[in-house]
Design goal:
GO terms for molecular function: ATP binding. The protein has 221 residues and is α/β, with parallel strands linked by helices. 34% of the residues lie in helices and 19% in strands. The chain is built from seven helices and eight strands.
Length: 221
């Protein structure tokens, strides 16, 4: 699903990046060993590292920064991350910080990506303020590519308005990203939604990932 052994998921805050990363890891873990690396050193909320039990129950190994889930806000990238990337027996999903500044964390591992390859997937939700127009999405992608020091290889349509999302919302995201693809040449490789919002017609050339809301806040229960 979506390419190489090593895949990095990036996107602005509110794009649903962490939800996509967790769901992708769980889906892949049904078929092969998977490690999810929480590289979100920017946003202290909605991190993969906040859900170790969920990941463990689905057979996903979690590697997280030393200071994840503490009050210490220090970018800390441990040797465990290097070891996880170098382990060729496992698929690797990197949940990367929520903007271009967070994408800089990937630059530290560029020698590994040059060696093994990388699928760098940008999650886009056109219902968020900083990605609501094609121009904003293009600027976001350019900034994240520059910081990551690696080209974005695929787009992820995660158009949503939380639990109110319908198939029409997903189709709106599909239309927006088709325009981005025409401008950049970057294809949409993954489309995500709650099962109830899955469009009847699949998107040609892309896989569909039905989402489970693992990061849902308690007030939505």
């Amino acid at each position: 699903m979506t390419g190489r052994r090593i895949q990095a998921i990036i996107g602005h805050y509110g794009s649903g990046k962490t939800e996509v990363a967790m769901n992708l890891a769980v889906a892949l873990a049904r078929k092969e060993p998977v490690t999810l690396i929480d590289l979100d050193i920017v946003n202290p909320y909605f991190r993969s590292a906040e859900h170790p039990q969920v990941l463990l129950e689905h057979g996903v190994k979690l590697v997280k920064p030393e200071f994840a889930n503490t009050s210490v806000d220090i970018p800390s990238l441990t040797a465990d991350v290097d070891a996880a990337i170098l382990d060729e027996s496992r698929r690797v999903i990197l949940d990367v910080g929520g903007d271009d500044a967070g994408a800089r964390a990937l630059g530290r591992f560029k020698p590994h990506f040059d060696r093994f390859g990388l699928s760098l997937l940008a999650v886009v939700n056109p219902y968020r303020p900083r990605s609501s127009t094609v121009e904003q999405i293009l600027a976001m992608l350019a900034a994240m590519q520059d910081r990551a020091r690696f080209p974005i290889t695929g787009l992820v349509n995660n158009a949503n308005v939380s639990h109110l999302t319908t198939a029409n919302d997903v189709l709106y995201g599909r239309e927006m990203l088709a325009r981005v693809t025409r401008e950049t040449g970057i294809p949409v490789v993954l489309e995500c939604a709650l099962e109830k919002a899955r469009p009847l017609a699949p998107l040609k050339g892309a896989e569909f990932l039905p989402l489970t809301r693992y990061t849902k806040p308690e007030w939505m229960d």
